[in-house]
Write a structure and sequence with these properties.
It holds the Pfam family CE2_N. InterPro entries: CE2_N, PCW_deacetylase/CE, SGNH_hydro_sf. It comes from Candidatus Limivivens intestinipullorum. This protein is α+β, with helices and mostly antiparallel strands and about 350 residues long. It is built from 7 helices and 19 strands. The strands form 4 sheets. Strands 1, 3, 4, 6, 9 and 11 form a 6-stranded antiparallel beta sheet that branches. Strands 2, 5, 7, 8, 10 and 12 form a 6-stranded antiparallel beta sheet that branches. It has a 5-stranded parallel beta sheet with strand order 14-13-17-18-19, with helices on both faces. Strand 15 and strand 16 form a beta hairpin. It is globular, with a radius of gyration of 20 Å.
Length: about 350
């Protein structure tokens, strides 16, 4: 029996392109669809578009996680094995492990004839949103044997948003998450690593659903669809490419221009979410502390009591490579405790 994407018993999370209600497009990491069902048959129908790397979806069925390889381009039926020893009632979460290295249209599930879809609990009332780069997306997070070391050679197979500090933090808080995260992205267009040589920055991507030029024109996000009580801004890590001007000349024109743009970005976020707490961070990934100094300076100048700058215990010095699962857990533990301490009105 086919369960179409617009079935009201399905539960979605994340910025999703709903232009075609029979084929919603997943772009951002942590974007997901959840279903409870009975029986021993489960298939997922998808259509993938690849920009780079191998592409995978994540699947958690009855608490067991697997990854599902996607075609580079085109439609595919994903057979998901159901463990009948766990009973006849099941729950599946199908989610985007990676950033806009690919876009996937979800075309529905299939369960056994005569089986049924059952009701899910309501979504959490707590909601967070994260704006960040590869660390927020969980890139290379599964390469745990490289904890505290540079990244291994990889082709996307180690990236998993489930193990990003961002989603870990949301789970610790019991919150839904929208993870507006893209590997290589910096604040400003023309800097960072994303979409070389015509680098796209968060200043252009933050309010979009589609933002990777490889997939066509940008499309805007309707902010009315999701209002977080807490927003985490994790930008400032890739901004030292192609030149680390903050380290080289803290009071120079480039550094002053970046601080001005960061302040304007915070104003845009505040404009969308007048009542949210905004927590500005970087990560454990090694970087020069001048970027954190700049963030702190901007946050103080904002004179907004609900915009805060938070530093981790090992901020900017924890690892030369991407965060692996234990390091993301470390960040999530500290960040969730800090957010709880703010006394947000969830």
């Amino acid at each position: 029996m086919r369960i179409l994407p617009d079935n009201e018993m399905l539960q979605y999370s994340g910025r999703i392109d709903w232009t075609d209600k029979k084929a919603p497009v997943f772009v951002f990491p942590c974007t997901s669809v959840r279903m409870r069902f009975t029986g021993g048959t489960l298939r997922a129908y998808v259509r993938n578009k690849r920009a780079y790397w191998e592409n995978y979806l994540g699947c958690i069925l009855d608490g067991e996680q697997t990854k599902l390889r996607l075609p580079d381009d085109g439609e595919m039926v994903l057979d998901i094995k159901v463990d009948l020893s766990k009973g006849s009632a099941h729950e599946v979460l199908l989610f985007k492990r990676q950033d806009a290295c690919h876009e996937t249209a979800f075309l529905g599930f299939e369960i056994g004839d005569g089986e049924e879809v059952t009701e899910l609990p309501a979504k959490p009332r707590r909601r967070i949103e994260v704006y960040g780069d590869s660390v927020s997306a969980g890139e290379v997070s599964e390469a745990v044997e490289y904890t505290g070391k540079p990244d291994p050679e990889h082709n996307g197979q180690y990236s998993n948003s489930w193990y990003s500090y961002a989603w870990m933090t949301a789970r610790k808080l019991g919150a839904e998450i929208h993870d507006v995260a893209q590997g290589g992205i910096a604040l400003l267009d023309g800097t960072g690593w994303f979409c070389a040589p015509d680098y796209v920055g968060m200043e252009s991507a933050w309010n979009k659903v589609h933002y990777n030029p490889a997939f066509g024109p940008d499309t805007d996000w309707d902010f009315a669809g999701y209002t977080p009580q807490v927003v985490v801004i994790a930008i400032g890590q890739n901004d030292n490419h192609p030149k680390d001007y903050m380290k080289e000349d803290y009071y120079g024109d480039c550094a002053r221009r970046w601080r001005s743009a960061y302040g304007k970005f915070l104003e845009k976020i505040r404009g969308q979410y007048p009542d949210a707490w905004i927590v500005c961070i970087t990560t454990l990934l090694e970087h020069d502390p001048s970027w954190d100094q700049s963030i702190d300076e901007v946050c103080r100048e904002m004179q907004d009591g609900k915009i805060r700058h938070f530093l981790f215990r090992r901020n900017g010095s924890g690892t030369p490579g991407h965060l692996r699962i234990p390091e993301a857990e470390e960040m999530a533990e500290e960040l969730s405790a800090y957010i709880e301490s703010l006394g947000a009105e969830w």
